[in-house]
Write a structure and sequence with these properties.
alpha+beta
Length: about 190
């Protein structure tokens, strides 16, 4: 996650206190300055990670994808049962495994399992994406299927101004892939499976 940390420190929309990230207390209170999460979430605008560079080791896109995967693994847990089913949960120690700057902008993380599937919600405090205020990130999957999506939710509808910088690509099945903007829900959704 070093690339991610470098990006967090260089792409903030507001100036963070001038201190070394390794010296920041992971239990510090929420920041009064906003932190731009483009370093962690840029794959959304890069065809939702469907471009070939995202799967090519050593590329910047691949490093971003790996950093996001590490972020997910820090809080997503499963308790397996004897019959093979599992119950999703939020790892209680996830904050200890995140960069301090990121723990300061995560208000909380919850998981909800309903008839549709499993929803992880990462609620933000003082987080932005390219300067546009974020409210949360949703990570959804339907067990025993390939139906997966990830959505960024914004606090205001002005995030629609970001649409021109979001790229699309065609996958191996010639399906157009990229972030889907919804002004009613104030969200950008990446469908990652059908």
């Amino acid at each position: 996650m070093n690339t991610f940390m470098d990006d967090l420190q260089t792409t903030t929309s507001s100036t963070m206190p001038n201190q070394n990230a390794s010296k920041v207390d992971k239990t510090s209170p929420p920041p009064t300055e906003k932190l731009d999460l483009v370093g962690l979430l840029k794959w959304f605008e890069n065809s939702c990670g469907f471009n070939k560079a995202a799967y090519t080791p050593g590329t910047e896109e691949n490093k971003r994808q790996q950093a996001f995967n590490t972020f997910e693994e820090s809080f997503m847990g499963k308790r397996y049962q004897e019959n093979g089913d599992y119950t999703p949960y939020v790892k209680p120690d996830y904050r200890q495994n995140l960069p301090a700057l990121l723990t300061n902008v995560i208000k909380d993380i919850s998981v909800v399992q309903d008839d549709e599937g499993i929803h992880y919600y990462v609620n933000f405090n003082n987080a932005t994406y390219r300067g546009y205020d974020l409210s949360r990130l949703e990570l959804f999957n339907r067990p025993e299927s390939d139906y997966v999506y990830k959505s960024l939710y914004f606090k205001n509808s002005n995030f629609m101004e970001l649409k021109p910088i979001f790229k699309t690509t065609r996958d191996d099945l010639d399906i157009s892939r990229g972030g889907e903007f919804d002004s009613n829900n104030r969200s950008v959704m990446c469908y990652l499976g059908l």
